[in-house]
Structures are given as C-alpha cells and as structure tokens.
From TrEMBL:
InterPro entries: AB_hydrolase_fold, BD-FAE-like_dom, GDXG_lipolytic_enzyme, Lipase_GDXG_put_SER_AS. PROSITE patterns: LIPASE_GDXG_SER. Keywords: Hydrolase, Membrane, Transmembrane, Transmembrane helix. This is Alpha/beta hydrolase. The chain crosses the membrane at residues 25-44. Coiled coil: none annotated. It comes from the Bacteria. The active site is at S187.
Amino acid sequence: MTGDERDQHPEKPHEGRKRTRGPRLIVIITLALLTVVGLVFAAFELSPRPSATIIRMAFDEQSTQLNAALAPLRPAYVRAQENIPYDRDDPDALLDLYTPDLGGGRRPLVVWVPGGAWVAGGKEAIANYSALLSGHGYAVAALDYSLAPGAHYPKPVQQVSQALAFLERNAERFQLDTAHIFLAGDSAGAQIAAQVANVITSPAYAAALQIEPPLQRRQLSGLLLYCGAYDLEILNFEGPHGDFLHSVLWAYSGDRNFRDNADFATLSVRQYLTADFPPTFISSGNGDPLLAQSRAMAARLDELGVPVTTLFFPDDYSPALPHEYQFNLTVAAGRLALQQSLRFLSRQVNATWAAPDTPGPRLPLAGRSINSTAPAGSALAENKAALD
C-alpha cells in the first residue's frame, strides 16, 4: 500500500477493543446482579430480619386501614389517656387507656394485646376499636410491647404481665374495678394473652416461664381470644403459609430451629392448660389459615371443663371471613363478633350498670343466614339467625 493509500485508509488500532466492550459490559452487569441476588438470598437465609421488615410493612398498612374505617363509630364520650408507661425502664412499655365518661365509679377492665405476628402491630392499630369497646362501659387498656426480631420470646409475655401489675397498682388512680379484669387479644396478641392467663392460673406454668403472676386468679374474669395460634405442633408449616410462619417464629424465638428449642416449647400454651383457666370467648373466621388453632384451643378448654363460648362459621360461609375478620364492622360477621364479645363480658361481670348502645350510625346485622352445627351454648348456636 502506498503512502497516499495509507492516508486515505488510516488504520483503526482500537476497533477490536470496541467490538468486545459490549459483551464485557454485559458480563460485568450480570455478575453484579448475581452478586446482589446472592446477597439478598443470603440475607433472608441468615437472618429473619428482612422477612420481618416486609411483613411488618404489610401488617401496618392493613391495620391502619382497618382502624381508620372505625373512626366514624368512635364514641365522643370516651376519654383516651395515651402513652402511659407501665415500666419506666422499658421504652416499649406503653399503654393507652380508654374510659367512658358515664359516671358510676370504677369500671371493669379489658386489657387488649394487639396482634401482628409478633413482628408488627401496636396499640395505635386498635385505637378506635378500643374506644368503641370502652363506650359500652369498660375501661380498655391497649398495650404496646416489644416486637421481634428486636426482642425475643418470652419478652412480650413478661411485658403484658407487667402491664397488668401496673394497672392493678394504679386502680384507684384510673378508677378500675380490679375484681373484674379481662385479657383480650387478636392473632399473636391472643396467643400472648392466653399465655399470661395461664401464668396467672397455673403455678407450674408460671415457674416454667419464670414470671411472677401479676394478679390473683379470682381477679381474672375471662378472656377474649380472636384468631390466635396456640400450639406449634398443629401449625401447618408445609402449606401455603409455611414460609411466613417459619419467618415470624424464627424472628420471635431467635432460633432458626425453633421447633427443636425446648425453651420455646412453652409458647404452645394449649399443651399447658389446666382446669383453672378462666372462662374464654374464642373465635376465628372460616377463611382464616389459623382456624384450626382456635378450634383446637376451644376443644381443649372444653375437655378441661373450662367454660368456653365459641363463635365459628360454616366452612361454606361466603364470602369467607379472613384472619382478623372481627375488626371489620362493615360486614355482619364483624358486628356479630362485637355483639357476642360484649355479651360475654357482661355475663362474666354480671354488671348492674346499663351499657349504652354502640355509638355512631346503626349497623343492622344483615347477610346470609348461618346454619350452625355448633354445640348448644355456643355463641353461634345461640344466634343462628343473627345474620339473616
């Protein structure tokens, strides 16, 4: 090639390098993505914290919506005292106390432990429901407690016990009737409430958990238990909710192999019940993945001779009632659950004061009828036509 030809066709020394830059960039990006995916996978495999964070976000969003829907029913005559510390050494140990301004002296006390799979939830989520319940003549304490994985079992059981002791010590200050105290809870809160009730009524169980009973047995008038999990051995870890259950129980126990953890076994309160357990109202929706837990808990209490009132629904009840159905008062089943809870409380207190009607717009029961096969004496059997 002559000089003139070379001038007309100059060499391109970097042409080959440019051709390989694209494939190399793809390889680098792919490796980076695989590294990120690997790190994320490792994070979920090595710690329950990522799963717990996602679950908490979902629970908090749902509970915020449910609480907001109850705002129109909140009674104007109920007073709220917020963020009362029940243990000044514990920043998580706060409660909100709702009391009706109706006169009449001391009020029976309902202590509600909110749910959230042990990793989510709090007293704000049940603010309007607590006020609504209080509007029927009760003092209602809605509790905060430490959440997993920041705290592990049995910390919440200890905290709820401390809250009861605090309220009992301050009964005069808050005008509480400590002869009629109820524990209540939903989901994980129901499980915690059941454990605390067993601490109060079973010395052997209290010793196993190393928790001092906060009340005398005679002070605990009953329990309201909604949608809880009471026995690890009958949880379905192989079903569609298995990964969820594994994540939250790993977070709560602090042990990935929680099913083999002897200390965590006491969480299965159903296995430790005695005939001294207090009268209990128990319910769960027919579409709740934990329905079998409530049925088994009720059956065990019945075997022990404990007075138990149940509200269950036929398997084909439609639309199926989900986990935590009781907080949805726009549906007849939710209103029936509130009605039956109030009937149970009133029966246990044998109150002489007249409880006011539910404030706010009247929500007549309406919907399909229930053809119940529930045993005589159950809440559902007593109210077969309530949803007509």
